[in-house]
Design brief:
The chain has seven helices and five strands. The chain is α+β, with helices and mostly antiparallel strands. The protein has a domain of 114 residues: Alpha-Beta Plaits (2-Layer Sandwich), CATH 3.30.70. The protein binds iron/sulfur cluster (2 copies). One iron/sulfur cluster binds next to α2.
C-alpha cells in the first residue's frame, strides 16, 4: 500500500517536473532540426575556383564504398580543354542514393577533397531512377534538387521566394536558399 502511494507520488512529481520544461519537439518542416557539425547528408562534388572539377576519376571513393553505391568511369583530359586538374576526369560519376548508408568513407578516401557529404537531409523522392544522382546533380545540387522537397505551405511564406517562384514549380531555388539550422556559414551553399 505504502509502496503504491510512493510510486504514485513519484509519478506525479515526474510529470510536474517535466511540465515546466520547454517542449523538445520541433514543428518540422517550418523549423529544421539543428544538426551536429559532422552531419553526413547529401553528397556534393566540388570544383576549383577556376571552375575545373576537383575529381580526377581515380575511383578510390568507389573502391572504399561498402555499399557499392558509387560508379565512376574515368577518361583522359584533353590538354586543350581539361575538365579537371589531373590527367583524368570522371566522365561518368553516379551515386545510387538508395544504396548509400551515409558512412562518409567516400569522402575520407578522396585524395583531392572532391566529394563531401553536406547538411541536406531532405532526400525523399518517388521514382527509383531519381535516386541515382549523376555528376551534374552532384556538382550543382541547387539546380537538381529532388523535385518534391519543396513545402509550398512553408516556403511560400518567405516573401522573397514567393516573389520569385511560382507555386507549382519545383525548386532548385528553394533548395539553394534553404539552410538547416545550425549549419556553420562556411558550409552553407553559395548564394
Ligand atoms: S557515404 Fe558511404 S555508402 Fe554512401 S556513397 Fe559514400 S562510401 Fe558509399
Ligand atoms: S571523388 Fe575523389 S576519390 Fe572519387 S573518383 Fe573523384 S577524385 Fe577519386
Amino acid at each position: 500500500m505504502l509502496d503504491g502511494l510512493r510510486n504514485l507520488a513519484l509519478g506525479f512529481w515526474t510529470v510536474l517536473r517535466h511540465a515546466s520544461q520547454p517542449p523538445t519537439t520541433i514543428p518540422y518542416p517550418e523549423v529544421k532540426r539543428e544538426l551536429p557539425p559532422a552531419f553526413r547528408g547529401r553528397h556534393r562534388l566540388y570544383r576549383h575556383e577556376d571552375g575545373l572539377e576537383r575529381c580526377i576519376g581515380c575511383e578510390l571513393c568507389a573502391g572504399a564504398c561498402p555499399s557499392s553505391a558509387i560508379y565512376v568511369l574515368a577518361a583522359d583530359n584533353d590538354p586543350a580543354h581539361p575538365v579537371s586538374t589531373g590527367e583524368r576526369y570522371a566522365e561518368i560519376y553516379e551515386i545510387n542514393m538508395i544504396r548509400c548508408i551515409f558512412c562518409g568513407y567516400c569522402e575520407e578516401a578522396c585524395p583531392v577533397d572532391a566529394i563531401r557529404l553536406g547538411p541536406e537531409y531532405e532526400l525523399a523522392d518517388f521514382e527509383r531512377r531519381d535516386f541515382v544522382y549523376t555528376k551534374e546533380m552532384l556538382l550543382d545540387p541547387e539546380k537538381y534538387a529532388p523535385k518534391r522537397q519543396y513545402h509550398a505551405d512553408v516556403d511560400q511564406k518567405d516573401p522573397e521566394l514567393r516573389r520569385e517562384i511560382p507555386e507549382d514549380e519545383d525548386l532548385g531555388e528553394v533548395y539553394r536558399r534553404h539552410v538547416p539550422l545550425g549549419v556553420p556559414p562556411e558550409d552553407r551553399p553559395r548564394a
